[in-house]
Specification:
Blueprint lengths: L2 H15 L10 H13 L15 H17 L3 H5 L1 E4 L2 E4 L11 H6 L13 E5 L5 H9 L4 E6 L2 H13 L6 E5 L10 E6 L14 H4 L14 H9 L4 E10 L4 H7 L6 E2 L9 E5 H7 L1
Parallel strand pairs: 3-4, 3-6, 4-5, 6-7
Antiparallel strand pairs: 1-2, 7-9, 8-9
Length: about 290
């Protein structure tokens, strides 16, 4: 059997089992390819010959991994120990949310047209989780230092591993902090992908999302407990020309209702209800 046939067969099994995609893929074929390439020890970012022959030993390894995915409903990122963000691989670990955020697209564009990359010297990444946004921000703004905060020791340990993987120890500082609690610096850019899901919705998540820590999603009754804190205090930590980028997902309508006079600058991501907006310090001082 060749690789192409293996992927098609695995994709059919995933579709028949009704697994949920949303941790780096959005369809059965890509999910199957990710699983199979990992089982074969082939890097996902390398071009691979789909006519490659797969022997019986390799097929057995593929079947074992496919069975785990279907029966456990664990995200592929946990089964493989890797997830992709902003075009880069990151280590994953159970107990820490899988790397993903629409902020990745913003960073791949170096913040343009909203940001002048050369003017960014200091960045704050709130709720850093795996550290993927902090690393991607350091890549996007090579002249900037980055402070990355989280309150979860597991997340900070994983972030440290990813920062070391990209040899960013001299540019990214990890800080254990509940939002702004242990901070005193002023930043040109603040990035925040906080928990923003209304608590009552989490019980209805697909099984795959139930494997991730609830605290990474739970934004309180309306989903915006931390977002309110982030916005109300942000201007104190921004330089005069500084800006903040926040992701709130489908809670964007609730946010607009909470602050009807605020002019949110919603960013185009190509995904409906991505809920990504940018504000400068002057706007924050005016509305919050």
């Amino acid at each position: 059997m060749n690789l192409s046939t293996c992927i098609e067969n695995a994709a059919s099994q995933l579709e028949a089992a009704g697994v949920f995609f949303g941790h780096g893929t959005d369809n059965a074929w890509d999910e199957a390819a990710w699983l199979i390439l990992h089982a074969l020890g082939i890097p996902v970012d390398e071009e691979t010959d789909l006519n490659l022959e797969v022997d019986t030993t390799q097929q057995s390894a593929i079947n074992d991994l496919l069975k785990q995915r279907i029966e456990s409903r664990k995200p592929v990122a946990y089964l493989t120990g890797t997830a992709w963000f902003a075009g880069m691989p990151f280590h994953t670990a159970e107990g820490v949310i899988v790397p993903r955020s629409h902020i990745g697209g913003f960073l791949l564009e170096n913040g343009r047209p909203w940001i002048k990359p050369g003017s960014v010297k200091r960045i704050l990444d709130l709720c850093t989780g795996s550290g993927c946004i902090a690393v991607a921000a350091a890549m996007a703004f090579p002249e900037a230092g980055v402070d990355a905060t989280d309150i979860d020791p597991l997340a900070l340990a994983l972030a440290e591993k990813n920062i070391k993987e990209y040899k960013m120890e001299n540019r990214i500082q990890l800080i254990e902090s509940d939002i702004y609690q242990n901070l005193s610096a002023v930043y040109d850019l603040i990035l925040a992908n906080p928990p923003y899901v209304p608590g009552g919705e989490i019980l209805h998540f697909p099984a795959e999302y139930q494997h991730e820590p609830t605290t990474a999603f739970d934004g309180g009754p309306d989903g915006l407990d931390l977002v309110h804190i982030i916005l109300n205090d942000a201007s104190r930590f921004l330089a005069p020309e500084g800006q903040i980028v926040v992701e709130v997902g489908e809670s964007w309508t609730t946010l607009e209702q909470a602050y009807p006079k605020a002019a949110f600058n919603w960013l185009e991501t190509g995904v409906e209800d991505s809920g990504l907006f940018i504000m400068d310090r002057q706007e924050l001082e005016q509305y919050f």
